[in-house]
Known about the structure:
33% of the residues lie in helices and 17% in strands. By secondary structure, the chain is α/β, with parallel strands linked by helices.
Amino acid sequence: xxxxxxxxxxxxxxxxxxxxxxxxxxxxxxxxxxxxxxxxxxxxxxxxxxxxxxxxxxxxxxxxxxxxxxxxxxxxxxxxxxxxxxxxxxxxxxxxxxxxxxxxxxxxxxxxxxxxxxxxxxxxxxxxxxxxxxxxxxxxxxxxxx
Length: 146
């Protein structure tokens, strides 16, 4: 996976509390996880899985991803989800945050290149952790080497 898809973190800033909490998550629903191993979502999810995270694919276009059952929507996933990692365009993010709030999920992470002021405002008002325009894999690697 190239750094183009997941730019390196700005080493001059410290990793904030929300990022740390989300990186400690055990069960991560990855929305938009592709079954194409060349896609950034696949590389990030594979890395997180290798780091001991339980990955739950959420993609209505795939029955399985990485040998795991894929769910059509966040609401279809059984059990508690700790964090939602999002690989969808910004216009879909407010609805994803609304679903996360309704389901009692503690955090929403929008991957590098994805920003949504509306989604951020919804998460902030609901008091859930929110990160945007950062790569979960890159931040996890950075934290592991602090």
